[in-house]
Amino acid sequence: MIEVSRTLSVNDGAEPVLRVDDVWAGLVDKAENPLTYVSSMSECTVTERFDGGLVREVVHVGQPVREVVTFYPKKRVHFVRTHGTARGTIDNEIGLGDAGELTLTFSFRIVVDGVEPGGAEEKEFASHMEADYLDAVRTTLKAVRGRVAGAATGISV
Prior knowledge:
CATH class: Alpha Beta
CATH topology: Alpha-D-Glucose-1,6-Bisphosphate, Chain A, domain 4
Distance between the termini: 39 Å
Number of domains: 1
Structural class: alpha+beta
Number of strands: 7
Helix content: 25-40%
Number of helices: 2
Low-confidence stretches: none
């Protein structure tokens, strides 16, 4: 099993300063429209909506994946990969760091079919997935900043 967790400071000096509501709106948009945020995803169709979440079919690194996405408002977006060669969970969680700063943590726990646990292939998969998700988190924060800056100036971004 691949287990990775990384926490990034949301307001690391970039402007405008983001609030929890801003980050939350970005996470919800990323769950519903991931192609803008996750460069390794080439397709996404939301197949079902339910109270507090949705089910989506995505193509991630060329592989079809089904994810059940549950929203815990202004706290966490929880993804369960139920179908595909890499199954498990992914979380995007809004939090506070030791100094009270706003943080965004992404974590995943994934099992890859046909890959030896702890082997070179699993480590390579983990490395690529971690890089993809770090990029997605940074892209999400950049997009949110663009929306907030646009709203402040009256320009739609």
